[in-house]
Specification:
299 residues, mainly alpha, 0% strand
């Protein structure tokens, strides 16, 4: 197993902690997205400045720095639509839809970078999707009342695919920090503006910026550090070093990590289907990990 794959699992685990921090926080979901992204931007700004200063004299173009603009806006849309959609549908519905990423990712990768699935990746994809479907089958419902929420979640999932795939497209950039720091900053500003507009239009004061209690800052800083600075940064880095579908399949193991954390923190005993799904996802991940095409040097 390459060090990039091991690093990817670290990133996926870091991303899985977001659910714990979000659940403990009382901040409005849209503002919560803005805060975690802006905190990550501020925290990484010294590293960004260091790399920008280092590469500035090596002919770095504005085009390279501008590569973060589009994915930053897309990430902001993903966070915002996900927060809206998950509140308009059943959790099971939203969970199933957002985890259809491995089905959408091959199409997006082919259109953006011309990357095709290997046979092993295709088999692993169907196994992973089958396992995900099993996890939520027992309470997934098709209901006209939740149709709009389901549709928004579907759009959010597509935006997440685009966000990661664009990172793959710009895999030749000189520094990961020159890419992700502006990305987080733009996404944070987008979410902040969305929260302000949403709060003013709906006359919901808790959406608007305010000073939060000390306890809230624990969750805000944790969200900015662990799932964002560590988790999302690693996902973006691995999209540059590992085949895109490998990242999307291994990212599904967030289910197992999040379920384990919920059991440890909230004493939530997982449904039996989680254990079965975890085993299925482990098989799917093993297929892509052991494939020679998962090596970053093989195209």
């Amino acid at each position: 197993m390459s060090r990039h794959i091991l690093l990817l699992f670290v990133g996926v685990f870091a991303c899985s902690t977001a659910a714990i921090f979000i659940r403990n926080s009382q901040v409005h979901p849209i503002m919560l997205s803005a805060m975690r992204l802006l905190i990550a931007t501020i925290g990484l700004s010294p590293i960004f400045y260091r790399d920008w200063k280092h590469h500035r004299g090596q002919g770095m173009s504005r085009r390279e720095l501008g590569a973060s603009i589009l994915p930053g806006i897309i990430l902001g849309i993903h966070f915002t639509t996900w927060n809206m959609g998950i509140r308009m549908t059943r959790v099971a519905n939203g969970s199933l839809i957002v985890n259809l990423v491995p089905l959408a990712m091959p199409i997006v990768l082919f259109l953006l970078v011309g990357e095709r699935l290997t046979r092993r990746e295709a088999l692993a994809t169907w196994i992973a999707v089958a396992g995900t479907a099993l996890l939520v089958y027992h309470d997934y419902q098709l209901d006209p009342e939740y149709f709009l929420g389901d549709l928004i979640c579907l759009g959010s999932m597509i935006f997440f695919c685009l966000y990661l795939a664009i990172s793959r497209k710009h895999r030749t950039s000189r520094s990961i920090w020159l890419y992700v720091v502006p990305l987080y900053g733009l996404a944070g500003i987008f979410c902040l503006l969305t929260a302000i507009v949403w709060g003013l239009v709906t006359q919901t004061p808790d959406v608007l910026p305010q000073w939060y209690p000390a306890k809230e800052w624990i969750w805000l800083l944790s969200l900015g550090l662990i799932p964002t600075i560590i988790g999302h940064s690693i996902l973006n880095y691995c999209m540059k070093k590992v085949r895109g579908q490998v990242v999307s399949i291994i990212n599904l193991t967030q289910f197992a990590f999040a379920g384990t954390l919920a059991w440890l923190v909230f004493q939530e005993i997982p449904h039996w289907s989680l254990y079965v799904t975890a085993a299925i996802l482990a098989c799917s991940a093993w297929l892509v990990i052991t494939s020679p095409h998962s090596d970053p040097q093989i195209r």
